[in-house]
Automatic annotation (TrEMBL):
Protein name: Transcriptional regulator
Coiled coil: none
Ranges of residues in domain HTH hxlR-type: 1-89
InterPro entries linked: HTH_HxlR, WH-like_DNA-bd_sf, WH_DNA-bd_sf
Organism taxonomic ancestry: Bacteria, Bacillati, Actinomycetota, Actinomycetes, Propionibacteriales
GO MF terms, alphabetically ordered: DNA binding
UniProt xrefs under Pfam families: HxlR (PF01638)
Keywords: DNA-binding, Transcription, Transcription regulation
Amino acid sequence: MAAMDLFGRRWALRILWELRAGPLGARAMLAHCEGMSSSVLYQRLRELTASGIIAPSAEGYELTRLGAALSHALRPLDEWAITWAQAQEQNDQNPADA
């Protein structure tokens, strides 16, 4: 499976994002990802596990070394998203300037 196909699947990147700080169980993941169904969560967990990006742990699921490296690769996207959100907030506060 190509990486972009995997990461483009709904909720896949969000799951990886939630695991960046450490292991999480499935119930905690569902609580963090409001609106995600349990069937989608378990499907994504199977796919991400099969790809070697996450692994089951005593606490639930965690990033593998490969998954942690991906986390570093996504950091610039996170930084851009913060800048974008701030710009959106400014546009909402000053609609005439947009």
